[in-house]
Amino acid sequence: MSAREAVVSTAVCCTVDNLDGMPGVTVAQHEVAAAAADDDVTLIWQNLTITPIRSKPGAGEQHPVLNDISGTLQPGTLVALMGPSGAGKTTLMSALAYRMSDKMTIAGDIRVNGCPIGPYMYNISGYIYQDELLPDSITVQEHLQLMANLKLGKSVTAERKRAMIAHILSRTGLERCANTKIADATGIGKTLSGGEKKRLAFAVELLSKPKFLFCDEPTTGLDSYSARQLVEMMKSLTRTGTTVLCSIHQPAEKLLYEFDSLILLTGGRTGFIGAPSEAVQFLRLQGLECEAGYNTADFLLKVLSSTTTTTRKGNQFTTGAIGPKTICNNYSASEAARRQEALISVELYRTTVDSGGDEAFRRRLTESRDRCWFYTLYWLMYRHVLQSHRNPNLQYFKIVQRIAIAVLVGLCFSDAIELSQRGVQAMQGVIFLIVSENTFLPMYAALSLFPERFPLFQREKKANLYSTAQFYISTIMSMTPFVLLETCAFILIVYFLANLRPTLLGLLVTVVVSVLVMNVSIACGCFFSVLFPTVASAMSYLVPFDYILMITSGIFIKIWSMPTYLQWMPFISWMMFASEAISIAQWDGVKSIECSNIIPSVCLHNGEQVLDQYSFSRQHLRTDLVVLVGQYFIYHLMAMLCLARRVSRN
Ligand SMILES: Nc1ncnc2c1ncn2[C@@H]1O[C@H](COP(=O)(O)OP(=O)(O)OP(=O)(O)O)[C@@H](O)[C@H]1O
User: Fold this and answer.
1) Cβ of residue 274 lying under 6 Å from some atom of ligand 1
2) Sequence-separated (6 or more) residues with CB below 8 Å from residue 1
3) pLDDT tens digit string along 389-413?
4) Helix 504-531 crosses helix 449-462 at what angle (to 10 degrees)?
5) Which CATH number fits domain 68-134+213-308+320-367: 3.40.50.300, 3.40.50.150, 3.40.190.10, 3.40.1390.10?
6) Which residue among 54, 63, 91 has the greatest number of ligand 1 atoms within 8 angstroms of its CB, and so is best to mutate?
7) Fewer Cβ atoms within 10 A, N terminus or C terminus of the chain?
8) Which stretches make up the ABC transporter domain (predicted)?
9) DSSP character at residue 61
10) How far is the CA of 513 from the centre of ligand 1 (A)?
């Protein structure tokens, strides 16, 4: 007998002996043995009360969603969580999995092998949500590869990961669809069925060999055959030591008996915890009999849901005697409840007598996986790039659109750019178009970037797969090559068609500034998209902001002529700095501009006078570039902080 087993058996004896007023409480030998095995983990919850936080300070009193409930999950068991809609199943499951919403307050104790639960639950548990979110446009095999890399990090070799994936694919029956796309944004081509998606979600959780797997209604929407397959997969998982807690609504009769244990919830209280046959027996003792031919699961749900119930005493039927409240009260006084209390006492006792072992266990649980920051970043970028590559239509459309605009602008200005007074106006016009084309389109396009990806990000962040910074930076970096290509194509076409200044420096500065403008605009669009809850609200605030950008572009008004209290505006805008930099590139060093037919006093004779006319100065070029780079980082930083705040509040 190992030291730990000894502690547990002593604890059981002591606990059972000391349970005053609980005669006859017996803890099954297999439960003791299971609790004692070294790698096994037992989860307990005691006097757990979960209450929603008031939405507004003046709002009325909030009723608890879960009210003073206790129970245990024994290692390697398949447990069904059942109860009517709104009973608190999801709430209990997310609390036990340490994935509770911040909008709830939690009182009571939840422990794994005596340790209060904490972020280590992400390392030892998996969670399958009711509404599974999976990335589109990538195949099953690619998704599993990506999740293996995110979950297991570099500590497991690529070869080992491949072998694991092959094994999991065959175990979950997904081999046939390994190369099928999960979903397709274009709606064309073969994608996974609902059942296959649920199996994929299950397969992903198998990668990290969790000690606990929490499945929120995984069989909902599946036909009885697929539901059975899924439950059988869960059952086989328990044989490897994983404890599976699965909320389920209406399992078929046979399927119900596949579960080792049932947790019945109603109105936030426990209706019963024990084997399915014990649950039926418990209700029978209260005169609640499942009619012949009636599905037991339906019967259980019916008695837990109804306010009045028909009970049977011999051949006599009476209505209204037993309701869910009475069932919960009877359960509290039952032997089944005492057995749970005894198992909880065992766990708590173990913590007090085996604090050294507990400490070692705690250390083992909290050990973080060997995940390199850049390795995670790389795989996230890989997924973004893969998704964009698989959705080329939108990208091609954007490129074609940009080229069309570039050709139009270039051709319109092709004869107008010259060293004359007419040319000055045309040049400043084309500069304004270059800057605004690289500002407004990308800024508005970026508005949908994060809202589209937010739900999946939130899930994966909650599962501790990566950080907000990794998600944000990978999203931006995966777009960067495409953004560079698009901007360079645009600017080169305009530059040569419109015959802008034929010097290498002029071209270089114009290209660099355009790329910076495009990136700052995207950064600003990202900031607005994460600052406001919806794309529509972000857009409504962005429109007035556009006016700040245009007014401060330096073309329409001299900044110094604006009221002093508005002279901060150019610093949140980038159009003036960009226009000034490109104007310097085009006009600096131009010695002579033709003045025919113009009154000499209003004629601009050289490049310096043109720059003066717009209050630009050749000395500002470096400052302009630095400000643009600064704005790029500031907008991205603010967007990242807003995103982190938003994800922590959800
Ligand atoms: N954030 C919240 N704020 C307030 N009430 C909440 C919140 N989340 C859940 N609830 C309430 O708690 C109760 C239990 O919700 P929960 O989702 O746990 O039920 P459930 O048993 O899983 O239901 P279903 O079977 O329909 O999924 C419901 O009445 C729900 O409205």
Assistant:
1) no
2) 9
3) 887 666 778 888 899 999 999 999 9
4) 60
5) 3.40.50.300
6) 91
7) N
8) 43-292
9) P
10) 52
Across 37-149, the runs of DSSP E, i.e. the strands, are 43-52, 66-73, 78-82, 104-112, 115-116, 125-128
Asked whether the CA dihedral 106, 111, 116, 122 is positive or negative, the reply is negative
Cβ within 8 Å of residue 489, ≥6 positions away:
399, 402, 403, 406
Kindly state if the Cβ of 91 falls inside 6 Å of ligand 1. Answer: yes
How do the domains of the chain map onto residue ranges?
A: 68-134+213-308+320-367, 373-649
- Name the pTM for this structure: 0.82
Q: Return the pLDDT at 295.
A: 85
Which three-class secondary structure state does DSSP give residue 387? helix
Which numbered atom of ligand 1 lies nearest the CA of 88? 18
Residue in 89, 101, 214 to alter for ligand 1 test, most ligand atoms within 8 A of Cβ: 89
Residue 87 CB less than 6 A away from ligand 1 = yes
- The answer to whether 514 and 494 are in contact (CB under 8 A) is no
Integer CA distances (angstroms), 282 to 98, 598, 613, in order: 31, 103, 91
Distance 284 CA to ligand 1 centre (A): 29
Residues in the chain: 650
pLDDT confidence of residue 222: 79
Amino acid at 558: K
User: Is residue 265 helix, strand or coil?
Assistant: strand
Q: Regarding predicted confidence, which is higher, 354 or 206?
A: 206
The span from the CA of 562 to the CA of 366, in Å, is 59
Atom of ligand 1 nearest to the CA of 92: 18
CA nearest to 136, candidates 186, 179, 195: 186
pLDDT in tens, 124-178: 899 999 888 888 889 999 999 999 999 988 888 999 999 999 999 998 889 999 9
